[in-house]
Amino acid sequence: MKRWKVYKWAGLFLLALMLVLNNFNVLAQVETEQDSLESLLPFANDLQRADILNGIANCIKNSDTTKAGNYARQAFTLSDKLNYCKGKATAYILLGILQKNHGNYLNAQQNYLLGLALALKCKEPYSVSFAYHCLGNLSYIKGDNARAMRYYIASVKISEHLKDNRRSAKTYSNIGTLYMEISDNDKAEEYYLRSLELSEGIELELTIAEIENNLANIYQLRGQDLKALYYYSNALEVFRKHKITTDISSALNNIGLIYLERNQNRKAIPFFLECIKLEQYSIDTRSIVLSSVNLEMAYTNINMPDSAFYYAEQAVKHAAKLVPCNEKSLAYHAMENLYARRKDMVKSKYYEGLKLEVQKGYSTKNEKYEMKSATAQYESERKEIKLRLLSKQNEINQLKIHEQQLELETKNLLLVGFSATLFLLLLVSGLVIFSFYLNKQRKLFELSSKAKSSMLQQINHEIRTPLNGIVGMSQLAIESKNFTELKEYLANIKLSSDELMFVLNNLIAYLQIDKKEAQPVASPFDLIETLEEVFKTYEFQCKAKGLLFNQMVYPGLPRLVKGDSQKINTIVQNLLSNAVKHSFEGIVKIEVRQTAQRTKDRKNLSTIQFTVSDEGPGLDEKEIKQIFRGNVRVSNKANGFGIGLKNVKELCDLLKGHIQVISEKGVGSSFIVELEVEVLDQNAQQTQNIQNELSKIEPGKFNILVVEDNQLNQRLILKILEKAGYNYSLAENGLIALNILKEKSFDLILMDIRMPEMDGIEATFNIRTKEEFVLDRNIPIIAITAHDDPMERKKCFEIGMNDYITKPFNKELLLKKMGICLLSKVDVN
């Protein structure tokens, strides 16, 4: 009985200790797995260091192969020095994966076999299962499906015994793919669904996407096209998210095949072309051949023989590098058919002979028999194991009943002791975790302070540079003695003003995002007109820098849309500014097009794609990963305080959009942004009608009330109105404006927001609600403010303002918004 109590207390202690460790694990989830492993290296002994180095190599084997190889080799050297069998086995397998990814299949096989031998020697089942799985993958790539099946079954036997659902799920998925190779779709579906079931509850987003892609293949073969498209689209979204070229290419190719089989060839072609573009940088020759063959079929179907022949030649060219396989046969079959259509039967027969020769070399009946035999034996073993497990489970249940009776006798005695021990341990763990948290917060604060100090210095530089241009050119303009000289100085003042405004807007956007205040505010706006204003600014900047500027707005782009025009404008400006800033020759190009349409909740939604390209220095993969993090960058060639592209990414996320970067070192970069906006019912004819009605406005018939407290802004607005021909009156704050409105009638009010005595919002509220202003309740009111705040903008529209303009404003934009507000007062008859 005493021994039982000792065991009980030891168990309780371990349980409490596990709770403490679990709390540490939860806290560590905020860091990436790689960072977590690297942070452990200084505190680990030599054996632990070998495991940690292998773990880091496994984390980054797909993203940074060079670095992963260095870590794996360090792990092997250390394990060899310590004679650590498991560390050497894992390092061999990881090095094999890296060799396979580079197309060095012989070296990969040697490393896998060395790793397997060591894992078997030291009886390390996880490494043995891993090695068999990798050997299966290699055999599949080499076209030896029967051998691949044997390796996969060896792997899954071990991983199922270990209850390693992650490895089992991946292996079952690969077995399903092998059944697809021999056209046993029912069996393939069975294994895919088994894999999908094991993936539930595990963070296997990529594996689930691969399974969905494979299930879609089966549904496509069965003619269930819509179901197949659903699964392909789900998989493609995940593959794009993780930027896995081979899987993106596979999903695109499969979607294209569905359209091809439905005789929608023109829909299929863009998917195949994107595949070809992606596969140019791939070592997967089979995929390149398959995409080329599919393009040949599509172009043949739409009677474009030259394009069809080109892609058939490409398929044959790449097929020559392959061992006998289905893709190689398809390439020769495509060329056979093309020559037959051209009545060149000699060449047609030649390629038919090559095709038949290839077909003899793959997917033989013996191979299919070997694969089915291996899986049949495995399934039989699984059933026997289940029967033995059921028998043992009955025995275990009997023992559990007896054990529960003993537990009930001692439970009450241990409850008090357990509660006290658990409380003390949780208290200690809480104090340790809190201490860890405070230490981490202190370090974060120190890093944040340094980053902010560095950024403030750069912001100071960014603001003073255009400000110096404005001040200096203003002095020269005052001293100028002829109109040509004066015009040049004024143009430079305008350029510096635009640059300063861009810097300030970018900084405001950054601060709003940082404080979680940058909520989207949707309102109607003219998309094409907004873009044209941006194009004017950057065309001028490109000209000043000696660059060519090319803009392309594709037909079909909606004009009147509803969305957050300010944030969309900020995104486009940042992309163009980045392109101009980092280009020193060549062309800066922007393309805007509509890529998709849909209806949701009776709203017509349109996806707008903005593509900004430059011929600057370009980026490598490491730089692409860093550009959206907002790191401070200072160089002799390109200035910037590092928040422009960070703002683009954050604003895209706020607007539920998507951004993609395509770049090549020494060639240039392309930034692609996709945003969804609501399309308002207005066609080109309606737009022309509005322009015609605006032209009928006679400014001399309208009285405008300007409410503005700043004298310089008063002079600016009144001068614009005077030149346009409007009649106007001035009020220096909201209270004076209300008194004037009681005595005189106006057609429109230009209202500043922040003013002494009474601000613009309170004045507007009085006009819209008070009985004494009932005759002027519907007078159009346009807010003109220097405070660019989304919440203030929203509040202005809620209390009844008709439009909202931020300072500094564009003269033409102000007059157009006034004209639209005054249209209701024009006698169109």
Summarize the structure.
The chain is of the alpha/beta class and 829 residues long.
Describe it for me?
Helices cover 68% and strands 10% of the residues. With 829 residues, the chain is α/β, with parallel strands linked by helices. Among the domains are: 244-361, Tetratricopeptide repeat domain (Serine Threonine Protein Phosphatase 5, Tetratricopeptide repeat); 519-679, Heat Shock Protein 90, CATH 3.30.565.10; 694-825, Rossmann fold, CATH 3.40.50.2300. The strands form two sheets. Strands 1, 2, 3, 4, 5, 6 and 7 form a seven-stranded mixed β-sheet that branches. It is globular and about 100 Å long. The model is unreliable at 1-31 and 632-641 (pLDDT under 50).
Overall morphology: globular
Number of strands: 12
Distance between the termini: 106 Å
Residue share in helix: 55-70%
